Amino acid sequence: MDGDGLKAAFTQITTHGRKVTCSEGPTVIPRETSGKIVELTGDCSEVVIEANGLKLAAEQIGTLRVRGNGNIIALGTVVTLELSRDGNMVGFSQPPQTFSDTAHGNQYGTDALANIHLNF
Known about the structure:
Elements: H1 4-16, E1 18-21, E2 27-29, E3 37-41, E4 46-49, E5 55-66, E6 72-83, E7 89-92, E8 98-101, E9 107-109
Parallel strand pairs: 1-3, 2-4, 3-5, 4-5, 5-6, 6-7, 6-8, 7-9
């Protein structure tokens, strides 16, 4: 995983997060999970985040659809990234192959989490 900020965020989230195993088909992180800390494990072919204020880490996601606001997401890799809500921060090691951002105030990239300090 590249970038000190991304490594630090990923480590903090995986240390403090509740482990959730991805399910067959889409894995939905519901609105009720808002404000939680989650580490996704397993085969995460498709993940939909409906929560707000979530801190999430995953080694690899096929398709990530962010439909919540104000989330901090640390990823190893993601193939497809879709941001449709505001104020999300998504750090990843390598740029996704497919990307769309139809919202406002999102930050994403290999250095998106460089200045983030997660206090647990």
